[in-house]
Design goal:
CATH class of the largest domain: Alpha Beta
Bound molecules: zinc ion
Helix content: 40-55%
Low-confidence stretches: none
Strand content: 15-25%
Number of strands: 10
Distance between the termini: 29 Å
CATH superfamily of the largest domain: Ribonuclease H-like superfamily/Ribonuclease H
Structural class: alpha/beta
CATH architecture of the largest domain: 2-Layer Sandwich
Number of helices: 16
């Protein structure tokens, strides 16, 4: 086998109407230039009228494409691509070539290699390793994701999760919309506003939004305002973990207030106990367990707040809406008569958002999976030291968490 036939197989040209005419190795710059030519008849299909016959070759356009490296040599394909005039409509257009899409300056297999690398590496590492400019890298990403997203089917989404992540050190937010059953991010919106939900609905389809079985989100009024406006408030399920967080915060507030008062009297029993009240008791050391047991059984206010928080955990186990409602009414009475302001405030909040809390009994959904995706996204954001633009971060989220079928080679 000679070099040209070997290269032809390596480049995937062996069954096409193209063949290699010249291979030029520049050892100084470490670049291989592979020149290609074509055999007639050329395959052609007019984009305008679909005709597969052409009248004559109009001219040739000299083009180059970056291809996958060959043994660490940067590989560039060169060819004069014919432009032909359509037999039927006389429109002049370029014939399609098997290794690249129109107007792209990189081959499909090179694009695939870059996309696979972007999943596991930071963008700056991909740039360095594959010697590509930021422009080329972003063009590959933007096009591949835009293509994959247009063919992505979201009609099967039944359970929608909505959650936000902070970017740029918490100065900006992105709202992520998840398919909770498939653990995929289906849409990313900027900010966490009322408008963000409306923009999503515009993309997703209002009709389809109304047929969702349930929507899991946080008790965040701008989101809820939009959901209510779409008459979908009855589908809302508030995320269990966000509610737990509100209860934990109340316990912590009670502890801090009480600690301030106690230390004025020289009592330091609540010093350094923050995490004893917040941690799962199973994760405490033997010594911490002993201290916590004594504190928990004391007549401290924080012990009462903790008791009420713990009592609420039973709510999540109910199977019947009736029993769960009775339980909540009893808990609410106890919380509002506890004389603990932070606990009373949380109780009032839970009452106000009761419609979405009781829905958990019918649809036991949580955003736990989306929290998992969020921590994955935080890793990507850190790894790339910021993504230069929010759009690039969105693309990376779609690439890594979007469940997209990104195969430039297969979609040619
Ligand atoms: Zn035509």
């Amino acid at each position: 086998m000679n070099t040209k036939s070997l290269l032809s197989i390596v480049l995937g040209l062996d069954h096409s109407s193209w063949y290699i005419t010249d291979v030029d190795l520049n050892t100084e710059e470490q670049i291989v230039y592979v020149t290609l030519n074509y055999k007639k008849p050329l395959q052609f299909q007019c984009e305008e009228c679909g005709c597969t016959q052409y009248k004559h070759i109009h001219d040739h356009k000299q083009r180059t494409w970056r291809h996958k490296d060959l043994c660490e040599y940067l590989t560039v394909l060169k060819a004069g691509v014919p432009r032909v005039s359509c037999y039927k409509c006389h429109r002049v257009s370029q014939v399609s070539i098997p290794w690249a899409k129109a107007f792209m300056r990189t081959t499909l297999s090179f694009q695939q290699q870059i996309l696979d690398a972007c999943v596991v590496m930071s963008l700056s590492d991909v740039q360095k390793m594959y010697r590509v400019s930021w422009y080329t890298l972003s063009m590959i990403l933007i096009r591949a994701i835009a293509n994959a997203r247009t063919i992505k089917n979201v009609s099967q989404v039944q359970y929608l999760g909505i959650d936000e992540i902070a970017i740029h050190k918490g100065h900006t937010y992105l709202t992520l919309f998840y398919d909770l059953e498939r653990s995929e991010v289906i849409w990313v919106g900027e900010n966490r506003k009322y408008e963000t939900i409306l923009q999503f609905v515009e993309w997703f389809g209002e009709e389809r939004f109304r047929t969702l079985t349930a929507i899991c989100c946080d008790m965040w009024d701008p989101y809820l305002k939009a959901i209510k406006q779409l008459n979908c408030a009855n589908k809302v399920v508030f995320d269990k973990f966000h509610i737990k967080k509100h209860l934990n915060d109340a316990v912590d507030k009670v502890r801090r207030q009480e600690h301030r008062i106690l230390q004025d009297y020289g009592d330091w029993s609540l010093k350094n106990t923050k995490y004893l009240w917040l941690k799962n008791p199973c994760n405490l050391t033997a010594c911490q367990k002993q201290t916590f047991k004594e504190l928990k059984n004391s007549d401290l206010k924080v012990a009462r707040a903790y008791g009420l928080k713990e009592l609420f955990t039973h709510f999540w186990d109910y199977q019947s809406v009736g029993w769960a409602t009775q339980f909540f009414n009893r808990w609410f009475w106890a919380a509002t008569h506890s004389r603990l302001t932070p606990v009373k405030k949380v109780a009032a909040t839970l009452k106000r958002y009761w419609y979405g809390i009781i829905n958990y009994i019918k649809h036991p959904l949580t955003n736990a999976r989306s929290e998992g995706i969020n921590s994955k996204i935080r890793v990507y954001t850190k790894r790339a030291y910021g993504y230069k633009t929010v759009d690039m971060l969105k693309n990376i989220i779609y690439l890594t968490c979007g469940g997209l079928n990104i195969h430039p080679l297969k979609s040619r």
